């Protein structure tokens, strides 16, 4: 197959590049230059994106590109909307006209976090900030296009590259003796490699799941444990110390969200229910501890 991957230099994009090659010829593009396997392109220039689509005519389009700076989005709403809503809408229109398939990614931040149970795909969204609003607008654009598509909502993605909580905690642990970590926000940390693996499983099974996909196009995928940021930080430091990535673990102070002011509000509970993707595609959410350890082991020199 001929596959177009946007966001190839991001956390998920780099993991997808590793696994997509057996499926066909992959062309990877992103805003960031210099990443092996991807070439630079301004994805906010939709005319340029359309020209690339016409030139490549991919059978599958995978949109892993996104504006993910949650706080910065509050001040750069136009840019966030362009990348999180208008770009997927452009891809969806082309896929509809040419009967191609689109795989797109969304976020737990489309929910307001007021639930007391894991969110299922049909729960009403209610984003608290610009980032969630623009990602939800991207979901709606795909639905309105009526193209063949699947949306994978995920949460708290981390990896050995890019900007993420795991790498930030390791960096701060080497700089400070005490860290204050929010303990009243709960979600499911997800290794980017696991999300990439789940994506490839979905793509491989599409031909046999046409009826399922015509009924349900949004699926939740995240790793298998719900924790707070505070609990996640403790686990990171525990495993990092065991692997000799840290010589000293900083003292951790548990604080509430109100004590750690941020520009954008975050949902306090954004755990995703993964039962549907398990039933439909046989995708099993991996264990958090095992996944985090495998990720950290790649940082061991």
The CATH class label of the domain at 2-163 and 191-222 is: Alpha Beta
Give the name of the CATH architecture of the domain at 2-163 and 191-222. 3-Layer(aba) Sandwich
**Total beta strand runs:** 13
- What low-confidence regions span 5 or more consecutive residues with pLDDT below 50? none
Beta-strand residue fraction:
15-25%
Succession of helices and strands: EHEEHEHHEHEEHEEEHHEEHEHH
Written overview of the protein:
- The radius of gyration is 19 Å and the shape is globular.
- It has a domain at 2-163 and 191-222: NAD(P)-binding Rossmann-like Domain (Rossmann fold, 3-Layer(aba) Sandwich).
- Helix 1 crosses helix 7, helix 6 packs across helix 9 and helix 9 crosses helix 11 (288-297).
- It is an alpha/beta fold.
- It is built from eleven helices and 13 strands.
